[in-house]
Amino acid sequence: MADQNLAKGGSATPEGARGGGDHAATAARRRATTYDSPSPSEPTDPSTPSGPEPSEPSGPEPSKPSKPSKPSKPSKPRREGDALPGDSSDGTISRRRLLGTAGATGLVLGAAGATAGYATASSASSPSSSDDQVTPLSSVGAEEVAFHVKHQPGITTPLQARGHLVAFDLAAGAGRKEAAALLRRWSDTARRLMAGEAAAQDDTGIALDAGPSSLTVTFGFGHSFFARTGLESRRPDSLDPLPDFSSDQLDRTRSNGDLWVQIGADDALVAFHALRAIQKDAGGAARVRWQMNGFNRSPGATAHPMTARNLMGQVDGTRNPKPTESDFDERIFVPASASPDTSGDPEWMANGSYAVVRRVRMLLDDWEQLSLKQQEDVIGRRKSDGAPLSGGEKATETTPMDLEKTDSQGNLLVPINAHARISRPDQNGGAAMLRRPFSFHDGIDAKGVPDAGLLFVCWQADPLRGFVTVQRKLDRGDALSKFIRHESSGLFAVPGGAAEGEYVGQALLEG
Fold first, then answer.
1. Phi and psi, residue 426, nearest 5°
2. pLDDT, tens only, 286-314
3. At how many degrees (to 10) do helices 268-282 and 176-194 cross?
4. Which helix or strand (DSSP H or E) is residue 264 part of?
């Protein structure tokens, strides 16, 4: 919803969102923008913890329907700093680029500064081409995110329009050997699908005709995984269970898990295709514990880039940490030099991050009974544009919030219990997390109430300093708390990206 919460994507904010009736033009605009938070159609600030604030091949591949030939695409996935096909030497955007791969975000930050063994960004432009050679996939379908990067994809990648979160438990009798084989299969499948290719075995054909569509697949390990595999000595202290919060009404069957997978894409069929492939790859090694499905605004749905809104209608994601900030990596990622003696993290977590996953139900019927002013007082920002209530008529979403400003009667313009006030990093000792959520709607419950809200996902180098610090503060008096309910929870250690020829988690499972 506002500053440290709901909004949209993971690391982006209003400046880098996708939008526009002309997808291609919008994409070009987005490429030239600095993101404040990842997002599907705009950069938004996912919500804060309290809810919404603002394959190993075996044998010949079975026959399947012939797949129409795909248009040519760049030889390498787009990364920050890459030259784009058709760009001129002076940095201007050519007509080919404008019409080419709309929906491209250009912020696969994990590739920047990658060490040896990882794919590196290409600094040379593609061979010259003319307007009549424009790639036919001229929308979100052409965008490809790299798999072999420093930080796993799906963390700083702009929020996608569709998402699936799924947790697995290892099957009875499965241990370290089976887990290693599974992660190897999963990593191979993720690499293939993210490149717009078919799975190595028994591809379902669900995504035939579609491009990569910004697909990302991210893998993490839960607290229970280490005991199941005999790796307790390598479990990070940061994976200690989260404390209980007064707003929790957790369903334990939809919480935690040995393994966690996050899937995101800008096309629903591409996302579902990846989900089915991951589930099939699990085979007899693991079984699904829980699965949740989410969405965000589609690329090109707005006339211009803007921060997204959550299901409460609130602009959400204004103060999400920005990759351009000097301390962004320090707050979001485990250092490359990780060790128990330095960062307190095991070496296998180098360049990784910790993901807190919460299913936050929004009590929309109660919320929508509030007047506009009451809703704005709960959040601390105007509903129309996300500007702080202390900013005045000309304020914008990025206008600094004045926490001491009062009206003519001496009342604080931003109420003392406003969500945006309580969740601000400067009100929590600098605690920050990269919020990258998906909204969800799972129908109407037995009482006729919408089962809808936020699949809150936040990333941080230390969950105790990030999520826990902020959530404890929100727990003590956030005005938003009466309109949301935390129904499931999970904490997962997400290692750094896999180098070429390796699989995610190899340093843990084979170290």
1. -75, -5
2. 999 999 999 999 888 888 777 888 999 99
3. 160
4. strand 259-265
* CA-to-CA separations, 214 to 126, 163, 191, in angstroms, rounded: 20, 11, 12
Confidence at 138, pLDDT banded by 50, 70, 90: low
CB count within 10 Å of CB 11 equals: 33
Phi, psi of 218 (to 5 degrees): -125, 140
- Strand 434-435 to 450-460 pairing: antiparallel
Q: What is the pTM of this model?
A: 0.77
Residue 439 near residue 160, CB atoms below 8 Å: no
Q: Name the pLDDT band for 490 (thresholds 50, 70, 90).
A: very high
Q: Helix/strand/coil (H, E, C) string of 180-225?
A: HHHHHHHHHHHHHHHCCCCCCCCCCCCCCCCCCCCCEEEEEEEHHH
Q: In DSSP terms, which residues pair with 457 in a beta bridge?
A: 357
User: d(Cα 393, Cα 434) in Å, to the nearest integer?
Assistant: 30
Catalytically active residues are 316
Structural tokens at position 455: 């699949």
Q: Compute the mean pLDDT over every residue in the chain, rounded to the nearest whole number.
A: 80
Amino acid at 214: S
Q: How far apart are CA 425 and CA 430, in angstroms?
A: 4
| Residues near 109 by beta carbon (within 8 Å), at least 6 away in sequence | 11, 80, 151, 156, 323
Q: Residue 259's closest CA among 381, 173, 167, 127? A: 167
Q: pLDDT digit string (tens) for 9-28?
A: 333 333 334 444 444 444 44
| Of 466, 440, 438, 474, nearest in space to 8 by CA | 438
Q: How far, rounded to the nearest angstrom, does the alpha carbon of residue 66 sit from its chain's CA centroid? A: 33
* Residue the block writes with tokens 């170290």: 511
**Taking phi first (over 0 means left), then psi (-120 to 50 degrees means alpha), and beta for anything else, what does residue 502 get?**
beta
